[in-house]
Structure formats: structure tokens, C-alpha cells
Specification:
The protein is globular, with a radius of gyration of 14 Å. 28% of the residues lie in helices and 36% in strands. Strands 1, 2, 3, 4 and 5 form a five-stranded antiparallel β-sheet that branches. The model has no long low-confidence stretch (mean pLDDT 93). The protein has a single domain, classed as Alpha-Beta Plaits (2-Layer Sandwich), CATH 3.30.70. It is built from three helices and five strands. It is α+β, with helices and mostly antiparallel strands and 108 residues long.
């Protein structure tokens, strides 16, 4: 299993609106891509009106990630309205091989 991690920064005041936007774009795309095992979105308030947002998605392997991200899996995938929300938009994502663990993949 592979964990794909993306992080960016948004204005804290737009957290709820941004979360809804991501559910409709990236979240729906994750779940409709064969080989996706689930995803989560987390926020951390950094102060000064800015929050870090991280999306974590779990995949059966790199081929499944290519189905979502394209051939260059290291490059982040963005959507048309992302620039409206993001105050920091990194170019790259990270991938990790999951060795073991347990826990929920869905929010309670």
C-alpha cells in the first residue's frame, strides 16, 4: 500500500468552504479512481489567519496513483478553483510505502 501526501496553506477563515470544495473535487476523484483505498483531509491552524491543509490518500500501488495523477506521480494535481483558496501551492507531493498499522480511514 502507498500513502500519498499533499499539503498546502489556506486562509483559516475559508477552511469550511475549502473542505467542501475538496470533497467535491479531489475527494470524489480519489474515490472514483480504481485502486484508491480511501482518503482524509486534516487542518492545522498556523496562526496569523493561515492554516495548513494536508490530504492523505491510500492506494494499492503506484499504477493506481498514475490513474489519478498521470505519469509524473510526484507532481501535485490541482483543480480550477484551487488558486482562489491556496496561499501556498506546492508543486510536488510525497509518497510513502505503508509497512503496517491500523486505524480508521474515514472520519468519525
Amino acid at each position: 500500500m502507498i500513502l500519498r501526501r499533499w499539503s498546502g496553506r489556506i486562509r483559516t477563515a475559508e477552511k469550511t468552504e475549502y473542505a467542501d470544495y475538496i470533497r467535491r473535487t479531489g475527494g470524489d476523484d480519489y474515490l472514483s479512481t480504481p485502486g484508491n483505498l480511501g482518503w482524509q483531509m486534516v487542518f492545522r491552524d498556523l496562526g496569523d489567519g493561515v492554516s495548513e491543509v494536508v490530504t492523505l490518500s491510500w492506494w494499492t500501488g503506484m499504477d493506481a496513483i498514475r490513474g489519478f495523477a498521470g505519469d509524473d506521480v510526484a507532481v501535485a494535481r490541482y483543480y480550477p478553483e484551487d488558486d482562489r483558496f491556496l496561499v501556498h501551492r506546492p508543486r510536488l507531493v510525497e509518497h510513502f510505502e505503508v509497512a503496517e498499522g491500523s486505524g480508521p480511514l474515514a472520519a468519525a
